[in-house]
Amino acid sequence: MTDTTFESEREFDSDAMTANTYVDREGFTRSTEPHSPRLKLTKAERKKITRSQRNQRHEQQSVLFDEPGPRAQQCIRVINVIGVLLVIAFLAWIIVRFANPPMGENQLSWKLWEPALNGRAWVSFYLPGIVSTLAASVVAIAGATVFGFLFALGRLSTLAPVRAVCSVIVEFCRAVPVLLFMIFFWRLFAGLGMGDSSPFWAVCAGLICYNGSVVTELIRSGVGNLPVGQREAATALGMSHMASLMRVEVPQAVIASMPALVSQLVVVVKDSALGSVISYADLLQRARRLGSLHFNPLQTIIVAGVIYLVLCGLLSRLAQWIPAYMQRRTTGVASAADSA
Amino acid sequence: MRSIGYLLTHYDVLGAFGVNLQLTAWSVLFSLVLGIILVLLRICPVRSLRLFATGFVNLFQNLPLTIVMVFLLLGAFVQLRFQFSSNFSTNFFWFAVTGLSLYTSAFVCESIRSGINTVPLGQAEAARSLGLGFFQSATLVILPQAVRGSVAPLGNTLIALLKNSTVASAAAVSTETSSLMNTMIQYNASSIVSVFLIFALGYVILIIPIGLLTTWLSNKLAVRR
């Protein structure tokens, strides 16, 4: 994600810098003076300087306030302490509620946490759950890419009827909630006699319909963002409209939308948890089963939640890291889109 | 095969959409308030508050809504004995509103924050040179422009919220659309496609005007620079 404010702040800050300092690529202030003999500081002084540097760095994160003066610093320190106390009080309230719910048992007791964390829970519940969640997500993202590719070509076609049909289908898929798709496909596949595998394919189909339409729009806007010269060059080489799309524009648009596609993967993993509503044995569903086995759904769901956090956190990290590697291979702009 | 007329008269389809709209309306209210508070915390000079807001947003952005709902139902209600009302259906309704609001507020916060990036640096500098403090410059100068600049992502968040309100069935709200659709298909398996199309078209009719309205509003409200 590109933050325009951050860029401009850096320029803004560099104005205030003295001649022998510069701002390096990470945005930190560095000195060009190698070793100054005057810089023999006591420990306390050094501490003070690093603190002011830290404040300076943090000032770069927001344009909304000045470098705080002594009084403001005092004030911020007081509010900081109050803020920490409030957060601690909130957490303490939750822990107390956990330890002592009205007319219930202590939710912190190891008796309830042990079955949610032991080896058996991992081997027969969480790990198969993670595998099912990832399996559905991988099939869904692969299907969504194919769906998106085909419908993007359709929406960019020169034939008006093809364009119209593809637009209607894509807009329909974008407007209908994923859960409705899943329930529909689940009942449909079960009715067609697919038996036990129907929840899996229903999850995949539901995710493909929605995310495919998102990918369609990503690719379509990716083609729109390419420089006009690409299409002109293709036309000059004698390529038809379709050939230019297939061989020049769409491949670059796909690469440019790669970071956004990876962010979409986060959405897919999150939405695959809807499968638990239609009895697909994903991570959430298995955590619920484990919880009903030992009467500790609270604990097992917290563990599952942490696993989802780690999975999605890793994927978002990947999405932020990818644009730099993709930029060389496209004339478009490779940047991650917001995923709602 | 059942006729569409039979399906519409024997099941309260409009009522189910009403439940989803109510869920959405309450969640819009709470998530807007919470989202604006979060965005203020995220940009404020106090470190602990900033970290708290960042943590909150990251938590709810990376957690599936379904697990939030199931946690509220099985964790908060069954095991921690939180309760909004002794009436089961009202109780679950407010749990669903809680889940939707918490989840959506993270996205509202990020939408407004992306709007803050559209406000030119000069605006903040001008506010500071007028002697406005952080809170004043944020609420009087930056946020009003940021909200106007973030109408499009906020509209997308609203659409996502309306669609997400179907997940309330995971918090045992049994009168909303996805639960009703499931029941209707169970009892009228032969007309599965028409049942699905009734509900799907209902959402299309609700969502396409929202999309058009936000596009129009975001053009109309965008600050001309």
Explain briefly what this protein structure is.
The complex is a heterodimer of chains A (340) and B (225). By secondary structure, chain A is an all-alpha fold.
Tell me what the structure shows.
The complex is a heterodimer of chains A (340) and B (225). Chain A has 3 domains: 4-66, no CATH class; 68-108, no CATH class; 114-329, MetI-like (MetI-like fold, Orthogonal Bundle), CATH 1.10.3720. Helices cover 71% and strands 2% of the residues of chain A. Chain A has 14 helices and 2 strands, in the order H-E-E-H-H-H-H-H-H-H-H-H-H-H-H-H. Chain A has helices spanning 4-15, 43-59, 70-99, 110-117, 119-155, 160-175, 178-191, 198-224, 228-236, 241-256, 258-272, 283-294, 297-321, 323-326, and strands at 21-23, 29-31. A two-stranded antiparallel sheet of chain A has the order 1-2. In chain A, a hairpin with a 5-residue loop joins strand 1 (21-23) and strand 2 (29-31). Chain A starts with a helix and ends in a 14-residue tail after the last helix. Chain B has a single domain, classed as MetI-like (MetI-like fold). Chain B has helices at 4-10, 13-43, 47-61, 65-79, 88-116, 121-129, 134-149, 151-164, 177-187, 192-221. The longest helix of chain B is centred in the N-terminal third of the chain and has 31 residues, at 13-43. Chain B starts with a helix and ends with a helix. The chains are: A mainly alpha (340), B mainly alpha (225). The interface between A and B is large, with 66 and 68 residues.
